[in-house]
Specification:
Blueprint lengths: L12 E2 L10 E9 L5 E8 L5 E6 L8 E5 L23 H6 L2 E6 L12 H24 L5 E7 L1 H12 E2 L4 E5 L9 H14 L4 H8 L13 H13 L17 H5 L1 H5 L3 H7 L18 E10 L5 E4 L11 E4 L8 E8 L2 E4 L5 H5 L6 E5 L1 H6 L35 H10 L10 E7 L8 H14 L3 H4 E6 L10 H4 L6 H17 L9 E3 L2 E3 L4 H4 L5 E6 L4 E4 L4 E9 L6 E8 L8 E2 L8 E9 L4 E3 L2 E7 L10 E7 L1 E4 L1
Parallel strand pairs: 1-8, 5-6, 5-7, 7-9, 9-16, 16-17, 21-29
Antiparallel strand pairs: 2-3, 3-4, 4-6, 10-11, 10-15, 11-14, 12-13, 12-15, 13-14, 18-19, 20-22, 22-25, 23-24, 23-27, 26-29, 27-28
Helix pairs in contact: 2-3, 2-12, 4-6
């Protein structure tokens, strides 16, 4: 064998290396399919492993010599979505892929994500790399020998995988699109800081006022009605990177993905709970804080167990508190001492989250004494203060460093962020990679704050120097969230970034194959917030910019029965395409029932409309537009959306 044998661990995977575990591929299914579009489906795995892959090939006359490869850590199937969480744009779109002249690749990451003792590189990139390399052999069998370009993309945890693959492989993929990414210190701090703000700002129901202040036509001062503790919590979460405009959805906001990772912290840092509630420097001992008033303990016995995952425990007595994000501490029996994160408590039924240690959860039996306790939940709400990372563009933590350069709060002996990063990416992120990378981030992201994309850009700049321009680019998408699908209130304030992601993949392919570098978004970071210019010419990137007014301003105060006049000027950045659609949602309900007449697709246009408001109330009318690179109004692909809102107050 002339190929180089690859060792497990941090050694780089190359185009010719042979993985010691994933080197014997086999095919189980090879057939033509017509749904949702005609394609050839090839499914198989690697001998003596749980690794599975699926390839979806277009008809020969649609093939242009490339593949798009999607990845996400919690993919339990090698087929196109859905994944265990609702992450619409990460599910893959076969119609788009084939329309782009590509075939589609997906794996199940070897079925080993977060499996104790397994090499994290397996789920991060080894199985994906082995499948990608084999897909080229299958493509050659189908289409004949040819050069095949590969592009790996993934969102959130999949962004870590994509970056880890870029940094630990060479010649397997030519390009990478990590989208809605975090940094290597993000877990759990991006969630804990939000939980702290939610608890403090809900004590006196201050979040509705904050949302109103930062909304179009608001006062612009979210601190106006806050006391000292509330103002401090608002500053803390904002300086960590939480986008203030996203507070519009405050009523439904919770701890996000915190529950998926909360179980590992008591295992890694078991003394934190006692320190938080007993030592100076922690919020739990701060006499000015009300956090102690929020703590509860509910002791009871387990009456029956339904094995899992998910594990369901029937309790003798139902708790009368909100048990969201609480832990179940086992006080007797074989699992005594275990602290297991709770997903929900419905009456007497307690469901543990999927990431609870299955061996420990399985040891809980009927008759065991347990305690549902939110002590860990409350303590972790300020864990980020005690996780200040080393120097390296980590803007969110600057607020916790004194003038002398030392942390203001006691620091833990372990940083949790790198543990999560290695689990997902297979290694720490260094910023050095082969190929080209086009990152995509969104400015309303409450789960992976937008500044973390700038963090990685700066990290790569430190490593690559002048080579950065030839290897790295960024698209920022305004008014978009971390995930989809969206609820009605979200549709009234935000757009999907799915079309932008599609265009990013096509732009990356053009960059790699034709040398045409994308026009990345211009931005600046101020107080940990990513800010983009107001004009399309200055902002660049791929998203249209909208200037919308109601009766000439961002707010119209009227009497019920009066009519409001709307004027919108929309412009697409140079080279980004043309406007192909515009939709009005005058009532702010998130349904966009009125299609605006825009005539021929254009790079810039002005739209006017009027609407009569017959009943009193405050509304946020919205205009949602889409641009498309080729100016094709009929294609569903590459439609890059944006939205603009104004306020109408009818008395």
């Amino acid at each position: 064998m002339t190929e180089t044998a690859m060792q497990a661990g941090p050694l780089q995977v190359t185009a010719t290396s042979v993985d010691p575990d994933y080197y014997e591929p086999y095919i189980e299914i090879d057939e033509e399919r017509g749904d949702p579009v005609p394609h050839r489906y090839v499914h198989g795995g690697f001998k003596d492993t749980e690794a599975r892959f699926s390839f979806y090939f277009p008809p020969e006359d649609h093939y242009e010599g490339r593949f798009f490869h999607n990845t996400y850590p919690m993919a339990i199937s090698a087929d196109i979505g859905p994944f265990p969480i609702e992450f619409e744009v990460a599910m893959g779109d076969l119609g788009f892929t084939l329309d782009s002249g590509a075939y589609y690749v997906q794996t199940n990451n070897g079925g080993l994500f977060r499996v104790a003792g397994a090499d994290p590189a397996i789920a991060a990139y080894r199985v994906n790399a082995a499948a990608a390399k084999f897909s080229r052999r299958v493509a050659a069998d189908i289409f004949g020998e040819h050069r095949t370009y590969g592009y790996l993309f993934g969102g959130s945890g999949g962004a870590y995988q994509t970056q880890g693959a870029a940094e630990n492989t060479s010649g397997v993929w030519e390009g990478f699109v990590p989208f809605v990414p975090g940094c290597d210190q993000a877990i759990p701090s991006m969630f804990t800081v939000r939980m702290h703000a939610l608890r403090v700002l809900r004590q006196r129901n201050r979040l509705p006022g904050i949302a109103d202040a930062v909304a179009p036509g608001g006062s612009g001062d979210p601190y106006a009605d806050l006391n000292e503790e509330e103002a401090a919590a608002m500053r803390e979460v904002s300086l960590m990177g939480f986008p203030p405009r996203s507070w519009y959805d405050q009523a439904a906001m919770n701890s996000g993905y915190f529950a998926n990772i909360s179980g590992m912290i008591p295992q890694i840092d078991p003394t934190y709970l006692e320190d938080f509630w007993g030592k100076p420097g922690y919020l739990g001992t701060d006499p000015s804080s009300k956090i102690a008033e929020a703590r509860f303990r509910h002791e009871t016995r387990v009456t029956s167990v339904e094995g899992g995952p998910p594990f369901l425990l029937e309790l003798a007595e139902a708790p009368d508190q909100d048990c969201a994000d609480a832990h179940l501490t086992v006080l007797s029996g074989a699992a005594k001492g275990a602290s297991l994160p709770v997903k929900t408590v419905d009456g007497k039924t307690c469901e543990l989250i999927m990431t609870a240690d299955p061996a420990v959860a399985a040891a809980v039996t009927a008759g065991d004494l347990v305690c549902i306790d939110n002590g860990w939940t409350l303590a972790l709400q300020t864990y980020h203060r005690h996780q200040v990372p080393p120097a390296g563009h980590y803007y969110g933590w600057d607020q916790f460093i004194g003038e002398d350069g030392t942390p203001l709060y006691p620091q833990r002996d372990v940083l949790i962020g790198p543990v999560g990063t290695v689990n997902a990416a297979g290694s720490m992120l260094e910023g050095r990679f082969d190929g080209k990378m086009l990152m995509l981030a969104v400015l309303l992201d409450v789960d992976a704050f937008a500044w973390q994309t700038d963090w990685y850009r700066r990290k790569t700049a430190d490593v690559l120097g002048s080579a950065l321009e030839d290897k790295f680019g960024v698209y920022f998408v305004d008014n978009a969230h971390h995930e989809n699908p969206m609820r009605a209130i979200q549709r009234g304030h935000a757009v999907s970034f799915g079309g932008a992601l599609q265009q990013a993949l096509r732009d990356l392919a053009r960059w790699v194959e034709k040398g045409e570098r994308p026009s990345e978004t211009s931005y600046r970071v101020e107080d940990t917030q990513v800010l983009v210019p107001d004009s399309a010419g200055e902002r660049k990137g791929i998203q249209a910019v909208i200037a919308l007014t109601a009766d000439g301003g961002d707010r119209a105060d009227i009497v019920s029965g009066e009519t409001v006049s709307f004027v919108a000027t929309i412009e697409v950045p140079p080279g980004a395409g043309k406007l192909v659609s515009a939709e009005w949602d005058f009532e702010g309900a998130g349904d966009y029932p009125v299609q605006a007449e825009i005539g021929e697709p254009a790079e810039k246009l002005t739209i006017t409309a009027t609407h009569r408001y017959g009943t009193p109330g405050t509304r946020f009318p919205a205009l949602r537009v889409a641009s498309q690179r080729e100016g094709d109004p009929d294609t569903p692909y590459g439609r890059v959306q944006n939205i603009a809102l104004v306020r109408v107050l009818a008395s």
